[in-house]
Amino acid sequence: MVRGDKGAVRFAKKVDEEMAYRAVFVISAHGYLLGVYFSHRENLSRLPEMLRRAESELMRFKIVPYTYEIAKKIS
Question: What SS3 state is found at 52?
Fold first, then answer.
């Protein structure tokens, strides 16, 4: 869900076409789901569907855990 950002849409299509390795840290996935929640919390009838869509989109990525040890290595 890139809200129509043309640059983001182009980039997502390019990544899909290249079959590139796709991964996000769990903290980023959390932020994305939280954003979906806050964007749709006023419409409780639509919220479950939007969260399902977001989870479906995240399934395209490997979700990488983020631990203190990882933080030390990439800092």
Answer: helix
CA dihedral 11, 12, 15, 17 (to 10 degrees): -110
CA distances (Å), origin 24, targets 19, 29, 40, 47, 69: 15, 7, 23, 23, 17
42 strand-pairing partners: none
Mean of the per-residue pLDDT values of the chain: 87
Q: Residue 55: is its pLDDT beyond 90? A: yes
Cβ atoms of 65 and 55 within 8 Å: the answer is: no
Q: What is the pTM of this model?
A: 0.71
Q: Note the pLDDT of residue 3.
A: 64
Cα atoms in the Cβ-side hemisphere of radius 13 Å centred on 66: 12
